[in-house]
Design a protein that fits this description.
It contains 4 helices and 5 strands; from the N terminus they run βαβαβαββα. The protein is an alpha/beta fold. Strands 2-1-3-4-5 form a 5-stranded parallel β-sheet, sandwiched between helices. The termini are far apart.
């Protein structure tokens, strides 16, 4: 997993996305696509690591969150992010192998939901509202 982005590379207003998935191959693939489209990215292997990253850098424009992870699940991470006023503008996009039947994206407080395997066109459409090259994320 890559962790090349640090606070110096994520000043306020810079577009970057945090990818949270316990599969390092998925993280690397998503990061590669995002970077090729001008969006900085960083990854974390679980929710607990993601929270640590969120406290060391300016907030990301969005987070792509696997809903089924060890250590801290996707729904637990989403709840923690939604409780933090400093992260209220972060767009949360859930990732899963299948749409969970027990909870909808709205019930999980997600802004969007993508089904794995992630289609590149769908991924780029999900982050298009963020705009590459500057600006802030809006909900």
């Amino acid at each position: 997993m890559s962790s090349e982005l640090d606070s110096a590379l994520a000043p306020q207003g810079t577009i970057w996305i945090l990818v949270v998935d316990d599969d390092p191959d998925i993280c690397e693939a998503i990061e590669t696509v995002l970077r090729r489209h001008g969006i900085a990215a960083r990854s974390a292997g679980n929710g607990r690591l993601a929270l640590a990253i969120l406290h060391e850098a300016a907030p990301p424009a969005a987070m792509l969150i696997d809903l089924h992870m060890p250590v801290m699940s996707g729904p637990e991470l989403v709840a923690a992010v939604r409780r933090d006023p400093a992260l209220s503008r972060v767009r949360l996009i859930g990732l899963s192998g299948a749409l969970d039947t027990d909870a909808s994206a709205e019930e999980l407080s997600l802004d969007q939901y993508l089904i794995k395997p992630i289609d590149v066109t769908a991924l780029l459409a999900a982050v298009a509202p963020l705009g590459a090259g500057g600006g802030e994320a809006g909900r």
